[in-house]
Amino acid sequence: MRDTSTIKDMREAMVTAIVDLAAEHKDVVLLDADLTSCLASLKFEELYPERFFNCGIAEANMVGISAGLSSMGFTPFAHTFGCFASRRTFDQFFLSVGYAKQVVHLIGTDPGVTAQLNGGTHMPFEDIALMRQVPGVIVIEPSDGQSCYELTLQAYASGKTSYTRIPRKGITHRYPVGTKFTLGKGIELASGKDVAIVATGEVLVNESAKALELLKAQGIDATLIDLHTIKPLDEELLSTIAKRCSKVLVCENGRYAGGVGEAIAAFYAKTNPVKMDFLNVGEQFGEVGKLPYLQGVFGFTADNIARKAALLAR
Amino acid sequence: MLDASLKKSLEEKALRLRELTILEIAHLGSGHIGGSMSIIEALTYLYYKAMNIDPANPHKEDRDRFVCSKGHAGPAVYATLADKGYFPMDWLNTLNQGGTNLPSHCDMNKTPGIDFTTGSLGQGTSAAVGIALGQRLKGQKAYTYLMIGDGESQEGQVWEAAEAAAQFKLDNLIAFTDLNGQQLDGYTKDIMCMDNLDLRYKGFNWDVQSINGHDFDEIAAAIEHAKSVKGKPHMIILHTIKSKGFAPGEGVKSNHSMAFGIDVANQAIAKLKEEAAK
User: Fold this and answer.
1) Angstroms from A100 CA to nearest CA on chain B
2) What is the number of structural domains in chain A?
């Protein structure tokens, strides 16, 4: 058990988990694609130089090499920006990893608007949809440092391939050390009866938590779920909140098509249809800017979440 | 030079593998005959001489590994594996049938003896780099053998893997390019020219040799030489003939995948044996 409360950013939370795994498991190797500073991978390289491979600016090759290493009994973690980890390596991840039944833990940093100053070219809105297409792959988006650390350990222990999307800079310390996390099980942060907000990732869970206060001021008692595991869906929890609230708003830092909202809508459509609304980037491409600006552009703000939730609740 | 009796036995084996490959595809009625026939000598030498493998224990930890990145040459690999005893010979008659263990493209989770799944061209090259790295990381004295198509070499991933293999100094990676000069749509020179492959790999700091891919003496010498060169990955360019030994396909533009039945197969095999007897 490690306390991550003094860790300075999400990349450090992630690499700390990988380093801790490597200390215990000789099969753990790390590959990067010329973005070692973006995951703080150098911390791993210093400790385990023989188990670290910088593959250069060739992401598809990195994923293929990871697959080969997996076939030799190693457990590769491989990192690049989320846009490249998903769009650029998709065929390699789908076939050499997924179809070939290899186990690789792919990390895509700076999901959605957190790509900020790298702009629209580097803004992965579709990584969730792409990764959901690969049978058996676990898709994770932790909302804070402690859950990032713990869920990474659990992804390794699962023996299954995973994709984790995290911002590299900044960190939220939401959960204290000792919090029980379970891969595939969302966390209920508030249990109101009027409307349920299901959010994924740091930005939208944070804004949704602030929105709860705004809603309370309007007399609306909301549920909030931190859905840190996107695939497999926590169907049990989703059923529970649908029965309680019958109105569900899904907030994600990505695109609707193939994303979290669509996955949840499909689940409700066949089980317990509820009134829904969605917060996502819709049909837009990304653009450059600092996080507060981009949150404004896409409506990823507490005000907007509260507005949408209130409309749904009425 | 190979010992005369060894060479003779390899030539007999190659003839046998060609016969099995032709019959395997004829039984189905169509398949990737061209690129299967061009790599028969390489497969024969690898599986009957060069590789440290055990058909009774396909997952032997420290074995040499073979990645057929041109995964559509599966039929030739399956004929080889069946003849080696990895699985019953009658499996060859199930090629591409529903539920088969021998799919069109190589699948490590279905076919005993297949070391990596391939089919999307270029991907086997990166996997082979990962396997060779893994062998070194485990301290194994094992080799990774990799077969790449010349048409396949139009894929950018082949060159990403090539730069990584050189950077990581993978001298336990021995790759072949099956330079048969043809691809699905016709001749590589007309579609996307693959001239100067030797210079390309030399430029990537590989140890490079160019040989007749149907000559066992040359294949043996090239592998021996490759093993003597340290600190670099090895490329052995095999000058080959697409559809070699299957007369209806030799010299034919559209011989990548051909439809033929048992009568054509038997005629081709009779001709092949007749020529071998000369």
Assistant:
1) 6
2) 2
pLDDT beyond 90 at B148: yes
Of B115, B119, B126, the CB nearest to A65: B126
Q: What is the pLDDT of residues A103-131, one digit of tens each?
A: 999 999 999 999 999 999 999 999 999 99
Query: Quick one: pLDDT at residue A1?
Result: 83
CATH topology of domain B4-277: Rossmann fold (3.40.50)
Query: In 3D, which of A248, A101, A274 has the Cα closest to residue A186?
Result: A248
Q: What are B2-12's pLDDT values in tens digits?
A: 999 999 999 99
Same domain, A41 and A162: yes
Evaluate if residue A41 carries a pLDDT over 90.
no
Which among B278, B194, B277, B272 is positioned nearest to B19, based on CA atoms? Answer: B272
Distances (CA, A) of B42 to A309, B38, B212: 66, 9, 10
Helix axes of B4-28 and B74-84: crossing angle, nearest 10 degrees: 120
* Cβ contact, residue pair A68, B120, below 8 Å: no
Mean pLDDT of chain A: 97
CATH code (residue A90): 3.40.50.970
CB A78 within 8 A of CB A105: yes
Tokens matching residue B60: 């032997």
> Residue with structure tokens 């990823």?
A300
CA distance A214 to A221: 10
Give yes or no: residues A23 and A127 share one domain.
yes
Residues of chain A contacting residue B233, judged by C-beta atoms under 8 Å apart: none
Distance from CA of B34 to the nearest CA of A (A): 24
**CATH label of the domain that carries residue A202:** 3.40.50.920
Range of the domain at A19: 10-166
- CA distance to partner chain A, nearest, from residue B238 (Å): 24
Domain boundaries, chain B: 4-277
pLDDT (average), residues A22-44: 94
Residue type, A136: G
Instruction: Read off the tokens for B4.
Output: 């005369």
Interface-testing mutation among A51, A61, A134, with chain B (most B C-beta atoms within 10 A): A61
Task: Name every chain A residue with its beta carbon within 8 A of the beta carbon of B127.
Answer: 64-65, 67-68, 71, 96, 100
| Residue A273 preceded by cis peptide, ω within 30 | no
* Angle, CA of A148, A154 and A160, to the nearest 5°: 115
Residue A103 main-chain phi, psi, to 5 deg: -115, 115
> Do A14 and A162 fall within a single domain?
yes
Residue A18 has pLDDT above 90, yes or no: yes
* Residues contacting residue A138 through CB under 8 Å, at least 6 positions apart: A155, A158, A160, A161, A162, A163, A183, A184, A229, A231, A232
Q: Both ends of chain A: CA-CA distance in Å?
A: 44
Residue A174 falls inside a structural domain? no
